[in-house]
Design goal:
The protein has 323 residues and is an alpha/beta fold. It has 13 helices and ten strands. Helix 2 links the parallel strand 1 and strand 2.
Length: 323
């Protein structure tokens, strides 16, 4: 946030334990502390409307906004509504949702389907020069693999396992964002495979600041099924292989991924089924058939929303006008 020139205030809070136990008193104490911190921040900042973007961090701020009689907008990014947003949604004047089926969780007439906002820089990234930026060739099919800013060890392991099987693919190149925590291990293990003269182009990096450029360079994405990633690949119309994180709350990543797969924009591989052979078998089947690739792109585009940020902003302005 500070990089973007935006004022940022932190509160101290933790997620609610799933079971009653020794951690619950600490959670309750921190929730009360975060509520008081939120009251002080709102009193100092003096907002006209409060937007809660979901999760346990938003909850005490929403509660404080209700105490101050502020109009409240809550946004639900995922296909499964979490505990915090269920509670916050009852206090909200309006709720924006990403998936049509989640609209029915909230009071009738309160929720609108607006999608999940995607950064303007991601949407505006140009394909021209994007591959050269990462040392890739223009003519080859490009597979982009990532697991979020910290990486995904399971996906990284599958890539390492399967690289030897595709080493001779002179038409393929892979841009692998391994994550800062796992990068050194992945680099060491892939270096041991000696892919230098294999025909395959493989680039591994720890992190990419400008994901828009990475998306613009890719034909197919392999990733987890987080709300932001799905919003980005569908808004950009990119085919994907999604590997839902199995320990996500209420298994919401699996539900996110299932929605995209049922729409025809993605293939889903369960985490427990993921290995090198399965990953690259699916990737090569998609990349090797232009008709399949084009169909998945079109289907992803059909469910994507490039205007989600503007639509959510319109809801904010609507609340301001009402009050």
């Amino acid at each position: 946030m500070p990089k973007e020139g935006l004022d940022f205030r932190a509160i101290e809070v933790e997620g609610m334990p799933r079971r009653l136990g020794f951690g619950f008193p600490r959670f309750a104490w921190l929730l009360g502390k975060a509520y008081r911190q939120s009251l002080a921040i709102l009193a100092d900042f003096g907002p006209d409307v409060l937007v809660g973007m979901g999760g346990f961090v938003a909850a005490p701020v929403v509660f404080a906004a209700r105490r101050r009689h502020l109009p409240i907008l809550v946004h639900e990014q995922n296909s499964v509504v979490g505990i915090a947003n269920r509670a916050c949604g009852r206090l909200a004047n309006l709720v924006g949702v990403t998936y049509p089926q989640t609209r029915n969780v909230f009071a009738p007439g309160r929720a609108r389907v607006v999608g999940n906002p995607v950064r303007r820089r991601v949407l505006a990234a140009q394909s021209q020069g994007a591959r050269a930026r990462f040392g890739l060739e223009e003519q080859r099919k490009t597979l982009l693999v990532f697991g979020g800013s910290r990486g995904a060890q399971r996906i990284n392991e599958a890539v390492v396992q399967g690289l030897s099987e595709v080493a001779g693919a002179t038409w393929l190149q892979i841009l692998h964002v391994a994550g800062k925590m796992d990068f050194e291990r992945v680099r060491r293990e892939t270096h041991a495979l000696d892919l230098g003269n294999s025909g395959l182009i493989y680039r591994c990096v720890p992190y990419i600041d400008e994901m828009g450029a990475a998306y613009a360079a890719s034909d197919l994405v392999v990733s987890r099924a987080g709300a932001t990633t799905i919003a980005e690949v569908t808004a950009l119309g990119i085919a994907s292989i999604l590997v839902p994180y199995p320990h996500a709350t209420a298994n919401h990543q699996a539900e996110n991924a299932r929605f995209v797969e049922q729409s025809g924009g993605a293939r889903v591989i369960r985490d427990e089924d993921l290995d090198g052979a399965t990953l690259f078998e699916n990737a090569l089947r998609i990349l090797g058939d232009q008709g399949v690739l084009d169909s998945m792109r079109a289907n992803a585009t059909a469910i994507g929303n490039r205007d989600a940020a503007a639509q959510l902003a319109e809801m904010v302005f609507d609340l301001m006008e009402r009050n």
